[in-house]
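User: Please fill in residues for this 415-position structure.
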C-alpha cells in the first residue's frame, strides 16, 4: 500500500491516480473525507495521531504525509514557531521508539503543532521491517528545519534524502506556492524533479527546448481562449441561493471538462482582453456583474486576483500565476478586482465590481479538475482547496519513485 497521512481532499491521491496508482488516505476532517469518497479515493476516517501503526507494518511500500499547516502558516497565528523545540523533541524521541507526545502536547501553544511529528511515529514502526521504500512529505516553508531533522534520521536508516523548498509555479501550477518538500528513497538517489517552467520562457538550445513560461491564471482558466474578455459570464449558485458570476469562458470550460472527465491544456493566447464587456442575454441577468455597468464601461481596465482584504494582500494580474491560495475565514475575501490596464491611456471611470472567486476556479488554480467533486458548504470547500497539495506538483514529486517520466505537457491543466 501507499499510505497518505493527513490526506485531505485528495491532492496526492488524484496525482497518483493520473500516474496509474492508488493510495489509502488517513484523514479526520468530515468534509475532506466526503470529497475523497465522491472522487472514488480509498479513505480511513481517523485521527492520524491516534491510529495504530501495527495494521500497516509489512504492508506499506510508501509513505506520504502533509501535516496540517495552520499552526505554521503565515495566514494564521504561527504558534507552531513557538512550539518548534517541542516538535523537534517529539521527532527525536519517536525516532528512538519513545512516545513522549502526551507530555510535550501539554506544553504546546497550538495542539496542531505536534502533528508534524506524527510521520516519524509511522516511519519508526515501518523501518523495523525495512519499509517504506520511499517517502514524500510537504509543508509550509517554515517547517524546513523539521524536515532536515527527519532527513538526518532517515539517512541513518539507509535512505537517500533530499529536503528543500520548491515553487509550484516551476512545475506548471498557476500559483507561486512555495512548499518545504522532503523526498527519501531506499532504492534511488533522492532529488527534486527538474523544473518544467520558469518566470521567463527560456529559448531552445542545443540540448533541447528551454522551460516554458509560468502558467498564468488566464491560461489555466481558459480566459482569453474565446473572443470574450473576462470576467462577464454569470451562473447560479451564489450566496444565499442567488446567482454567482463565473469569468468569461469558465462555464464552457467547466462543461467541456465535465464531459471529458480529465484535464485539458488551453493553448496560450496572445492579446488577452484587458477589459470586460457585457454582451448577449446574460448581461441583463439580475445581480450579475454585467448588470452593474453598461457594455464597454470597463474599457481600459484589467482583472487581477486579490488574496484577501488586508493592506499587504497579494494582487496578481490574470496574465500571471496566482499567489499562494489560502482561505479559512478569508474565503470570501479572495476576489477578482479590476485595475487600470498598464496600456490604457484613459480608462473608463466606471470601475467594474469586484467578484468573489468560486470554489471551481480556486480548485483549477490548484490544478484539480474543474469538475472535482468538492463536498460541503463554500467555507468547507475553500478550506479543503487551500490546504490541498496541487496535484500537478504532487505528480512531478511522485513520478520518479513510480518509474514514470513527466514532461511539461504530460499533465495539462484543468479547464
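Assistant: Residues filled in for all 415 positions:
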Amino acid at each position: 500500500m501507499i499510505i497518505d497521512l493527513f490526506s485531505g481532499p485528495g491532492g496526492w491521491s488524484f496525482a497518483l491516480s493520473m500516474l496509474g496508482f492508488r493510495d489509502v488516505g488517513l484523514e479526520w476532517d468530515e468534509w475532506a473525507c466526503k470529497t475523497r469518497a465522491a472522487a472514488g479515493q480509498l479513505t480511513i476516517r481517523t485521527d492520524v495521531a491516534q491510529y495504530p501503526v501495527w495494521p500497516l507494518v509489512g504492508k506499506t511500500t510508501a509513505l506520504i504525509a502533509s501535516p496540517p499547516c495552520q499552526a505554521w502558516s503565515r495566514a494564521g497565528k504561527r504558534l507552531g514557531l513557538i512550539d518548534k523545540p517541542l516538535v523537534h523533541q517529539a521527532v527525536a524521541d519517536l525516532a528512538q521508539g519513545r512516545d513522549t507526545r502526551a507530555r510535550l502536547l501539554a506544553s504546546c501553544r497550538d495542539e496542531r503543532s505536534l502533528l508534524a511529528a506524527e510521520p516519524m511515529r509511522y516511519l519508526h514502526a515501518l523501518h523495523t521491517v525495512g519499509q517504506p521504500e520511499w517517502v514524500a512529505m510537504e509543508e509550509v516553508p517554515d517547517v524546513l528545519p523539521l524536515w532536515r531533522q527527519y532527513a538526518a534520521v532517515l539517512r541513518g536508516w539507509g535512505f537517500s534524502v533530499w529536503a528543500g523548498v520548491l515553487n509550484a509555479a516551476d512545475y506548471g501550477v498557476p500559483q507561486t506556492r512555495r512548499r518545504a518538500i522532503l523526498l527519501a528513497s531506499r532504492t534511488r538517489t533522492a532529488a527534486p524533479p527538474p523544473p518544467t517552467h520558469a518566470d521567463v520562457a527560456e529559448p531552445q538550445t542545443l540540448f533541447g527546448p528551454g522551460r516554458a513560461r509560468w502558467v498564468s491564471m488566464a491560461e489555466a482558466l481558459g480566459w482569453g481562449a474565446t473572443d470574450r474578455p473576462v470576467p462577464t459570464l454569470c451562473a447560479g449558485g451564489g450566496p444565499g441561493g442567488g446567482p454567482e458570476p463565473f469569468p468569461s469562458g469558465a462555464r464552457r470550460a467547466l462543461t467541456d471538462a465535465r464531459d471529458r472527465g480529465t484535464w485539458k491544456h488551453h493553448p496560450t493566447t496572445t492579446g488577452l482582453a484587458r477589459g470586460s464587456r457585457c454582451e448577449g442575454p446574460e448581461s441583463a441577468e439580475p445581480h450579475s456583474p454585467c448588470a452593474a455597468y453598461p457594455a464597454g464601461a470597463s474599457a481600459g481596465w484589467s482583472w487581477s486576483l486579490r488574496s484577501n482584504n488586508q493592506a499587504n494582500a497579494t494582487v496578481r494580474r490574470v496574465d500571471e500565476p496566482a499567489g499562494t491560495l489560502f482561505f479559512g475565514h478569508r474565503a470570501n475575501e479572495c476576489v477578482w478586482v479590476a485595475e487600470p490596464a498598464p496600456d490604457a491611456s484613459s480608462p473608463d471611470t466606471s470601475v467594474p465590481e469586484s467578484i468573489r472567486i468560486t470554489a471551481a476556479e480556486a480548485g483549477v488554480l490548484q490544478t484539480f479538475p474543474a469538475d472535482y467533486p468538492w463536498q460541503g458548504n463554500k467555507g468547507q470547500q475553500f478550506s479543503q482547496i487551500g490546504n490541498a497539495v496541487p496535484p500537478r506538483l504532487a505528480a512531478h514529486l511522485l513520478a520518479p519513485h513510480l518509474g514514470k517520466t513527466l514532461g511539461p505537457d504530460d499533465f495539462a491543466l484543468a479547464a
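For context: Residues 217-384 form one domain.
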